[in-house]
Design goal:
10 strands; 2 domains; two-stranded antiparallel sheet; alpha/beta; 6-stranded mixed beta sheet; Spore Coat Polysaccharide Biosynthesis Protein SpsA, Chain A; 6 helices
Length: 240
Amino acid sequence: MTNTIAIIPARGGSERVPLKNIRPLAGHPLIAYTIHSALTSGVCDRVVVSTDSPEIADIARNYGAEVPGLRPAELAHSSAHDMGFLRHAMETWVEGAEDQLWAILRPTSPLRSAQSISTARDRLQENEWADSLRALKPVSEHPGKMWRIDPATGEATTYLDQPGAFNGPLADLESLHVQASSLEIVRRGAALENNSIAGARVMAFALPALESLDINTEHDWIVLEHLVKNSPDVLPRIGD
């Protein structure tokens, strides 16, 4: 069985939602739900948190994750690329063969289930052609209905070169998907060789809409709290 590492990136400097990774939600810090799902998925040999924050590190350890050290500051600012924290963890904390699988589980998607992690991991392992697997969801706004605006003249032109598409039914447009940040899994060798968390060939993985929820703004947080208040079973049940 291929070795699988869950890596949970949780920097301390969130700007739009301050301290969102440890913000309390239904009695637990946000990151706790992702740690719990990874630990209970049954497929992760190690659950590692990559953070630059000692406070996040302590909380993560209390919920059962490993924090082998702190992420360097240059890999923890808002414009740092994801491959930076992944490469750092691979080369500094965790040894492994090229086929080792790394599940990138962001704490801002607390509704992602342990079962989805398990299913996605097995699916990638069974499909050797793919370097990685990425959760995708149908686009809510189709580019066939999008426009560019010339700042000098105010003229609007369609984003896609499909004459008349903007006036036609949505069903006539190509079905497109957008990436969900809640679940990505990549083979170690492919990530390092391509310097990318996706590698060269990506396998699609459909997630239920709620599991794709990603907390990036205060509005997102309000929506999440409303969901949890009215449907508490959407959250992983920590301690059960």
